[in-house]
Known about the structure:
Keywords: DNA-binding, Transcription, Transcription regulation. The chain has 337 residues and is of the alpha/beta class.
Amino acid sequence: MIRIELDEAALGATRIAMSPLRDAFCAAHLQLPGRAPSWPYQEWAGHARAVWREDDRLRPLWELFTEGPPGVSDFLMPRPLGTPDVYEELDQLRATDPAFVRAQVAVCYPGMGEEPFLRPYLTDPQAACAALADAYAAWWEEAIAPCWPVMRRLVEDEVLLRARTFATEGVDALFGGLESRARWERPVLELTKYIDAEYAAGERRLVLVPLVFAEGCRLYSTDDPEVLAVSFQARGAAALRERTPGPADGGDRLGLLLGRGRAAVLRELAGPLTTAGLADRLGLAPSTVSEHLSLLAGAGVVTRHRVGRSVYYQLTDTGRSLLALLAGEGVLGTAAA
């Protein structure tokens, strides 16, 4: 169990940031021996498994993943930048302080410094980190990049939803709805992990990182002296799966009333989403989703608001009531953001 104490100053400094490199890391964990990808990842894993096993450019990643202990060093995953560009994070990896790399090898791989796969990180850390970044880039380009447009929308939607929850409902709502492996009892955030650790208030600022592939490996990063990064599962990972048919019309009262497509759109709007985000999740054309949203907005069951260049939709009280009455979904207690 990990216990993180957060005083008012620490709570005020808490941030939510995306990290494509951490998603790539967790996706790689799904390829390890003995791992059985769960339902949302199975279709993706079929292609990715061949990349992981057959692309020799990934050797620096293979070795760190398979030759050493299960712990994760921060030189494998630098501090989250909040960028959607994985290559910015890879540049950060290439620029890792050699002294930090050597120190991390000693901490995370005790007594293994003479192992061939680790020796480059001690003798020439800069070149070793560059090779590791190149391996990450190859993994990204072959296995992750084709999915990234969908993944990016899912993560950006998650960041927006969590930020709005934090701003409008407070930290209790933010941490209370984080995920099943996290428990918040003010002033302590507890994380279920196989190690025990405690962090006092004010030691580091907390960064929450939503990941599509968090199911591959929940990350908890502590080696950074200023930042404590904790990942959690972003909603919508099912967008990676092969599309499956929805419920039969005879048992779907909401679908009978609104039509199956419009009912599916309404069900997805538990939190703010864009037209493109909904289209990705539902496997529908953006034009079709846009038409459904226009009709639902005209009926007063969804509302829209603009954030920068994007328009986000969410349920109104009427929409939540409609779902609760006809779909049997417990959404009446969800406060409007």
